[in-house]
Model the fold of this input.
Amino acid sequence: MKEMKKLFILEEDQLAAAELKQRLASSQWIKVCGEASGMEGVWSTIQAAQPDIVLIGSVKSAEIGVLCQQIRLCFPHIAFIAACSARELHWEPFFRNLGIWVLTKPVDVAQLEMVAGQAGMTPFGPPFHQPPFSPAFAVAEARQEKPYPVRSPEEKRLITIYGPKGGVGKTFLSRELAVYFAGQKKEGRPLNVLAVDFNLDLGTIATSLNLPRSPNLYTWVQAIDEQLNELAVREGRDPATVTHEEWQEYSMAVRLSPQDVSKYVVVHQETSLHVLTSPRDIRQSFEIKDYHLYIMLETLKQSHYDIVLIDTAPDTTDATIQALFFAQRVVMVGNPVVDAIENIQRMLKLLREAEYPEERIHICLNRLQRREMFTVEEIRGYFQLHPSRTLYTIPDDPEVKRSINTGVPLMLYPGRSAAKEAIETLGKVLGPSFVGESAAAVQTASKKRSSWLRWLRK
Done:
């Protein structure tokens, strides 16, 4: 008889977990080896149980995708299943892209048994090979970190700038916010700020700042690959024969020093802003894999930077999704035109159905003119924003075009402008508590300085 697969259940809904255990009692293929209703002590519990499969249901204190990736760092032999409700199924492509099986609630035992029979396979096809090193080695060497928290420490901030439509000023806003943060201070010293260009194919942050694009993300990827190749050779493997899934397993043993990030950045001399640019050659972006991105984001999370600001592509590729998963703040950028507004609404609907914490999300409409087809209040209503949430706006400003064409950030221009003040207001809300005013003070100040907003609504 085939050996039974050991299942660990991580589910806050204890009634649902009890019902599933009862239905599995007669299974000839699966036995429940442990369970947890929260994150407290889950690492030691999983290590003691040594399951083949972890089934994750409702865990409000952590993001499922990030949680699975971090458990995988410590236990690379485990397969993962996300049990999703009907309203969470929009996340299925993202979970599968991370190598996570997806089942709908209530979990059907027959489907669970079928997945258990293929626990050595990834949900997107190719075989999921066992690691070339023992699981015990991976557990001993891996950093046992807690899942990325929903509410993050105030002394650091990882911000992702995302726009579901191109051409709305997303990269411009990323540049200006990064320059704004670089000009702020903490305890008398300038903030350490890093801007990362995750638009791997067509990123332009370096161009917008008149910076060289070497070193860049691909330079870092090459350094990661050197370590991966060394691991494979030490295990007696030819790197040319290692599959993508095996590289994912090897990547769990890679240890990067957060201090090494500085090797791959270029510095904007006028502001001391550090920039991690996209590859120079678009063909190099094809060599950046999901495990490279995860290693880099984990390293950036542990780095010395006070603020890491990530500019993403207007898509839902792995780079963008991982940047959203890791973010403590997300800025969704659009224009006051029908297609841009519609795209933001579609993405908001997806994130809400996935129970993505709405307090992380900030919406910014760029290039507002005096007369628009929709008023700000009409757009607020369409997005179904809570009355306590602010819809941030940046007015159309002739200085913006000059700033883009000259490569000189608007934040460095002398004097005042409506767009500059609007970006500063957004920056104070996005940054940690020590950046500028507190969020409450910003809202009070913005009411006093809202004459241009009243002008827009005329």
Q: What stands out?
A: The first helix runs from residue 14 to 24. The radius of gyration is 23 Å.
